[in-house]
Amino acid sequence: MRLTHMTERIEFISKKPGVTEFGVPTEEEKTTEYSCWAELLNTPMREFRDPSTKVGIRKESPNFAIKFEIGIPIDSMWHVIWRGKEYGIDSIDPDYDKRNVTKIACKAVE
């Protein structure tokens, strides 16, 4: 495991509908499920073109490596907060051979 490379702090959050004390449903509430140190593997920038305006848009797609066994299973419906931005989880790839890291591919949430 490359602990010296794990210099980025990320948070895994879930979004669940909330309920007031009177039982009235509210908007989705963000709950921090887990926070850990991660290694930033790469951040490819993808360019997309809006067909109506013909303007290009760049989106970040960071990939992280975290410790293999964090104690709780990571849900693919969770989101990742990194440097104040929110990212959806595209894929989770645990390394069952060496059992040292889990790779997580993310995509920027609009």
TrEMBL record:
Gene3D superfamilies: Bacteriophage SPP1 head-tail adaptor protein
UniProt xrefs under Pfam families: Phage_HCP
InterPro entries in the cross-refs: Phage_SPP1_head-tail_adaptor, SSP1_head-tail_sf
The protein's name in its UniProt record: Phage head-tail adapter protein
The organism of origin for this protein: Companilactobacillus ginsenosidimutans
